[in-house]
Amino acid sequence: MYHLSALVCSILLSLLLTVPCAATADTVTDVDDKALKRQLEEYIRKEQTQKVKQLIETHQFDVNYRNQPWEPTLLFYASSRGNRELVDFLLEKGAEVNVISRYGMPIQWAADNCQLELIRLFLEVGYDPKRESAAYWQAKYTQGDTLTEKWIFDRLRMIERENIPFDLRNKAINELFDPSGNLLLSTAATCNGGDRTLVKEILAKGYPVDLIDKRGATALHYSIQAHNKAMVKLLIAKGADVNLPISNPEWARMLRQSDFDNNLTPLLIVAKELSELKQNEAGEASLYQKELSAKEITQARKELYAIAKLLLKNGADAEARTHQRKLSALDVAKQLGDTTFEKILKR
Hints:
Elements: H1 2-18, H2 33-45, H3 49-59, H4 74-81, H5 84-92, H6 106-112, H7 116-124, H8 134-142, H9 150-161, H10 184-190, H11 196-204, H12 219-225, H13 229-237, H14 249-255, H15 266-281, H16 294-313, H17 329-336, H18 339-346
Helix pairs in contact: 2-3, 2-4, 4-5, 4-6, 6-7, 10-11, 10-12, 12-13, 12-15, 13-16, 15-16, 15-17, 16-18, 17-18
């Protein structure tokens, strides 16, 4: 009996020494790149940076791997989290900053979360901000470039072949597949009060100052809504169109929200902001409006008056009217009883 038990124990011990242990939830063994990427994405979401690094090093994983040519790479996820340590590591491993997916680009994922530090880093290491513009890709397509991002050119070819009435002027490339994500210039102009130095850096690299996002708005529109006179002044000096309205008819129809197709020019945006301040002052702020103190309202009005003067000085059309109610900025000023705004408009 003793010898039999010893034999069984010997066999069991042998099996334990020769059969690999089952993989735990934190262990990845003998997996393909697709599965490995999914595991890495999960670690990034959980902020498990060291595990990401270890897994990439252990498997010598290609940080630019994508199962499909339009999928995001690991740099997208790290950028979204604002994980500077991991972004630096991925860049050291050769991560491509100019990569584009049907969900935008890594820098746009950083912009979505107000990661100005990462935006500046990507510009420093070679990101070309012109790639956000549909015109950039259309020019490459027209010139016969078939070597990069074939799937984007397929979309452009379809628009051309089917004669689809799609105006790409001043549009972001995202409009061709997934119209989401904040644009680079608009984020730099408004996030955390705006970063004028960063705005200048972006524009110096050839970025279109009037590039329109999914809401039909530009950096100038957002800067006015943020009551940021200094940023408005900078954008106008860099060539921003002072008469370009917010415009996205598709969104207006889909969301039944007229502001996306109501001819809201920069000056009419000022009028709208002043109207909302009046509501705020009366304690009638809408659900999406922040309740302001009397001091904050006074300061906001002061900024908006200064913005109106800037716009008019640079050629803003004071006669422009909304589509819905046919109101000019002067009409709004009279409705509000805002004599200061009236005087500015009548000069």
